[in-house]
Amino acid sequence: MTLLAPLFLLGLAALAVPILIHLLRRRESRTLDFPALRYLTRTTKEQARIIRLRQLLLLALRIAALALIVLAAARLVLPLGGRDDPPAGLALVVDNGLSSGAVLGTSRVLDSLVARAQEALDRTGERDLVWIVAAGEPWSASLPLTPEQARIQLAGLTPTHVTADLGAALARAAALMEAGAPELREIVLVSDLRAGSLDSVEETGGVRGQAVRIAPPPAGPAANRGVAELLVSGGLTPRAGEPAELLVRVSGPDLDGTLVRAYLGELLVATARTGPDGLAILPLPVLEAGWVRGRVEIDPDDLRGDDAAFFAFRAVPSPIVTAVGTLSPFLEDALAVLEEAERIRMGAGAGTELFIAGPGGTVPPPSEAPVLLVPPDDPALLPSLNLLLAALAPGWRVEAREMGAHGERAVTGGSYRALLPPLPPVHLAHEIVAPDEGNAGEPLLTLSDGTPWLLRIPGTGRPILVLASPLTLEASGLPASSAMVPLLDFLTTSAGDTPELAGVPSGKAVTAPDGASAVRTPDGTVRAHPGGPLFAETGAAGIYEFMTTGDRGPTFFAVNAVTPGAGPSLDREAAGRRLAVAWAGTSGAEAWPDAVLSGRRGLEVWRPLALILLLVLVAEGWLAAYGGHGAKERAPAGARP
């Protein structure tokens, strides 16, 4: 038993008041029996006993009323497994990602998860704050809610096609509570605990103070088949007037003979069956110039979110490329390979669609064609390159760094990184210097130390791309690798534009094209684009459309679900062991839901005390006003003196 305001117990001194009044009203009197009244003695004694009993009851009720008032004011808390003291912050991490859309009998996995989260909310009180962290919607903001508001938000959750990162969601929940939760804080993880969902948990040991309670997971489908990979024409953008092909990899059990269908729009254009390795190749017809949108799909199973994969790209004629200035021999050889494969057309003049420029080159100023600047292998020629760069983008320059001064670095980031095959390490990277810090450009490829390796310069009227190192064997292993030609092919196709994205993982932010005003989602809903370089609400698989202002026209991109891990789901104990290395006080073996907010002292009972007080006052009032009438009415008429 706990008192939150113990000073109010001084009010118990008021209990002496009705007792003193009762004692002071008692008067000793001498009794004289008249012979004529002796026959009334028995009746008088009976009435006196009733009156004394009534007075004692009134005294008890009045004392009880004062005691109830004092205890309610002192905020009595009883250890009844209650939900009020102290106030708590509760973060519910609910996994509404791809696997939550699986069907269990007649309902979804998410329905079971929401029911578990509601059980955790039953342990909260009115003074608590609740955060709903939807692990399948990493772009959504989580605001502090009352328990009733949290119930409404839980009921509105829907499955997304995002493979939930539970480690990141738990870290976000902890940060939210650290910013605004009461002293008592807990996180409740509500998930089906699919294999791989906890891979990102930091194994640093006890770095988080909040306890994580793990709700019992539902028994989801054990087996699932889905489209795990879709590759268009080996990763090279198909050219207009040429056929293309789709490489599809299906994951799951019993893969041999799985039927795969390919659609352009809603037109079925190809079918194939997978081999034992789950691979199938589907040919596409000759493509016309313009946007190509479609999908591949397999027969649906209990988890339907990954049974289809989408693609969107723009088929363009082979671009005309003009090389100016001094270029690396490796670069010239790669351009020759692309020309021989009819991926590009080497030329010059007004029809040029991409300039690749080195030191000593000149680029026609009126042209709107993009320019790719490649530094020389001889640092002495950098001033010549900087003259060209200054003419195209005043104030920008490339400064030399000594060979190997910063060691070997990998190409790890940038908006182009996910669209390219693995690139070999870089040994030499010059510094691309901006005229001011507020105009640092857009890094398309970055090294492991954050240095831009391929940079787009904005605000020049034409796309200007600058490579930070020469394409030589001394600068990187790229010229001798199989990635050289695909990289150059990609740049000749996408240098003047944000690259057409095919198969972006669901939940990944997408770079918006210039002038994007709205986005049409796969279900046909049109949402205003809030501005900024990124669009983050990619929770549903399908084809998205950026609607732009001016004459640019629409831009399409595809979003695909990431097939969840094929391993078995974790149980609570295994999940608890995984989390315990990074979250103090975490265990998966506690009783559910009694483990939620189990550190509380109990239930504050002022409301029940107020109700009892009301009943006591009603009883006291009735007994004081009417309690003696019955005795008077029962007294015999002849008893009057």
Secondary structure blueprint with pairings:
Blueprint lengths: L1 E2 L12 H9 L16 H33 L2 E3 L9 E7 L8 E2 L2 E2 H13 L7 E6 L12 H9 L10 H15 L3 E7 L20 E4 L11 E7 L11 E8 L7 E6 L2 E7 L5 E6 L5 E8 L10 E8 L4 E5 L4 H12 L4 E2 L7 E4 L13 E3 L8 H11 L4 E3 L11 E3 L17 E3 L8 E6 L4 E6 L6 E4 L16 H11 L9 E2 L4 E2 L4 E5 L5 E3 L5 E2 L6 E7 L6 E6 L11 H9 L22 E2 L1 H21 L2 H6 L7
Parallel strand pairs: 3-6, 3-7, 7-8, 16-17, 16-18, 18-19, 19-25, 26-32
Antiparallel strand pairs: 1-2, 2-33, 4-5, 9-10, 10-13, 11-12, 11-14, 14-15, 20-22, 21-23, 23-24, 24-25, 27-30, 28-29, 28-31, 31-32
Describe the structure.
The chain has 641 residues and is of the alpha/beta class. It has an 8-stranded mixed β-sheet with strand order 17-16-18-19-25-24-23-21, sandwiched between helices. A hairpin with a 4-residue loop joins β23 (442-447) and β24. It is elongated and about 135 Å long.
